[in-house]
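Sanity check

After download, print the first record. It should look like this:
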Amino acid sequence: QVQLVESGGGLVQAGGSRRLSCKASGIIFSITVMGWYRQAPGKQRELVARISNGGSTNYADSVKGRFTISRDNAKNTVYLQMNSLKPEDTAVYYCSADVTSVVPGVYAYWGQGTQVTVSS
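Expected structure tokens:
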């Protein structure tokens, strides 16, 4: 069983910063891609940023230059540093990880989500 637990969400004023963390635990042989997604009320879940185990990253256009994704492979943890936050960044943020565990193959696991609310 693999679990992802996010932390760091909360209420922040526009222009402020917030750092999200997500730790994967359980029987993990390897993790390839880790990422952050978000879902605002009435909208579909969208990719925010993702990072490979080699450190390659890609970002949604809406967060480029403001958000930075990073990971600590030794801790199976991914981070999302969010700066210059805007009200439109308000959403539930989910982390994901492509994991190889005891079952052969790579499977995507998701965290339970953490709410980020940006007030204007």
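If your output differs, re-run the checksum step. Summary of this record's structure: Residues 44 and 62 are 15 Å apart (CA to CA).
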